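Section: Multi-chain targets

For targets with more than one molecule, the full set of components is provided together so that the structure can be written out for the assembly as a whole rather than chain by chain. Components appear in the order listed by the source. The example entry contains two components.
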Amino acid sequence: MSRNPVFTSVPQSGRTIPRGRTAAAIALAGGLIASLGACASGDTTSTEQGPASTEIPSDPVEITMWTVQTGAAQDSLQGLIDAYEAENPNVTINLDYTESAAFSSTFKLVMSSDTAPDIIECGQGYTQMGPLVQSNLIISLEPYDELYGWSDRIAEGFLGPSRMSDDGASFGSGTLFGLPIAGNMIGIYYNVEKVDALGIDLDFQTVDDFTDALETAKAGGEVPIMFGNLDGDPGAKAWEPLMSAYQEKQVKRDWITGVEGSNIQNPEAIEATQQLLDWSDAGYIYEGAAGTSRADGNALYTGGEGVFALTGSWYLGTYTEAMGENVGYTLFPRVNAGDPAQASGATSQPWCISSKSDYPDVAANFLDFTAQAENAQILWDGGFLPLVGAEDVVSPNTGSEQALEAWNTLVEQDGLTLHSDWATPSMQRTENPGLQEVLAGRLSPEDFLGTMQQNWEDFQATK
Amino acid sequence: MNSRTRTRSQKSAYLYILPALSASLLFVGFPLAQTMWYSLHRWDGLSTPIWVGFDNYIEQVMSPRVQAALLHSIVFIFFFALLPVCIGLISASLLSTKRLRGLGFFRTVLFLPQVIALTVTGMAWRWMYNLNGPINEILASIGLGDLARPWLGDFDWALPAVGFVGTWIVFGFCMILFLSGIARIDPGLYDAAKIDGSGPIQEFFAVTLPGVKPELGVALTITIIGGLRSFDIVYMTTRGGPGTATTVPALEIYQQAFVDGTVGSAASIAVMLVAMIMVAALVLRRIFRTEQ
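Its structure, encoded as tokens over all components, is:
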């Protein structure tokens, strides 16, 4: 890509750059640069934009940030905004919220309108980020990365999925289009009282250890794994840990990012899927799962039915709020004892900046603020697993503490394997109903993975 | 009246339909033409559409998923139209044979499903069909516990289960329609039928059914169209699952356009659905045309 001229000098280290605090002192220059940036943003090529700057204007500035987060997560975004506004009194950031399904169906229209929000939460890959990159509706963050040193602060493993080719046709490497500030992972939640009563040893070294625990739970008259699969995705979330346990991480990642020659219909993936089916056949999964909604399944679990739940860290807040100290968290084991930890997980949706924004510098300055180690606590309070500064945050309860520990282990061992349904825009609609068929014994694991591979190949052919 | 004034008055009559016609062209005709145009392109909703001719149509007609959706919508004609119309007819004629105390109350109660927001209905039925829900509990209490199952998650039963929710919603509307139709029938006809010695069943076929023919036409037209384009009930109960057991064309359109981001192919299903609905409406009009 063509690098743009940067008016302010780029210091040696990203950490020494003057931030919002010193903005007042250099206001005039900043204002000038920001307005130049705004003039130049009318360019039509995707990666060309106005000269980026770390300085923000001192005049009153109002920008909008668009999110799909709810509850505690939304509160923590507001917390970040409040903290930023306290440091930069002339900046007002409005947090707009849209429910996730409605967001998916409207974001293209909204982002191409003249009143597009300045900062948008934008899923990695081909479904959301891809079309926005392709239509030049979001800007390259490379100049800001250079100024703020994000890639020095945030591991490449985290930034990679927010990179795309400039035409939006491939993801996983290339130009940085979004800044992720938090992460997620799928693991094991357990009901502390039940595990104690059943005498289950939680030190799972292998998948077989976990299967033994399921048998113990079943023999003890409990529901071993609880979820409601009427909506289709909870079954996929229970399948993901097995996919990460059996496959090598790079194999799983390559297939998701679309590396040529990848194939999900491989022996390890077939074994993983067969394991889920075996659990189901052995009665380890809640018998009413197929007809129970996602929300009802969660309500049953937090209400005390079910020993384990295999799902994402995004339920940490919901579960700990309802169960207090009665819920614990641990990583899902690998097939062979001693293999490095792996879990399906990724950064949560990165933040992108609209190409129609009048204040991209302010937006970038705020994004930088959210990715500061000292703000990690605000993120964690809202259930976001921070990418920077996760070692120093304080957890509100044991379950959260265990999750954070698991997270730090994964990050340390570079064990996040992404989510399979990212592979193509329609993969979710192939994967979720397909797994429902597998669990009902109507589709073999091999054929199921074959339909996923077919979808993958069809999509790669149209790129 | 001479023919000249008649012609003039007919010409000026077109002026009267102009406002309605232009609104309809603007808000129905134009979007429809636009959808047809999109259906001939490969388009993600944002970037430049690529002309593909009729490829979308061929692809969608060949897709097992779309075929399943079309088949389900035909099953839904039974549950959303035929069944509620039959139940509505029977209950309306029963309610109007005898002077029933509290008729207004029953009418209101039976019409209620039509009034409740569909999201609420969907949530309620999700719970009704749950493994621990009332339907399975009733089955268990009458000794049919073996039949208990998570209805909406069962590959064989999910489609009829969702269809029955449609029946439950629509039949009250049919009944009210038929009640008003029956009220219009000359009571003398019933007396005449009685004198001729017909029982209640003969009376129904000889007097009631022909008497409500216009209402029958309206009810079938509205409910069949409703069945073909059903979306909300499926979306609120099963989202098309388990597998693709309850997917319908409208859901497929929604998912292709807004989840997969393939607006062109979604538009092609939409055009086919509109064509199906228009054919159905024309056939029904033919059958129920009232001879003046």
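The interface with chain B takes residues 104-105, 108-109, 112, 127, 131-132, 134-135, 137, 229-232, 287-293, 296, 425-426, 428-429, 432-434, 436-437, 440, 442-443, 462 of chain A (CB under 8 Å).
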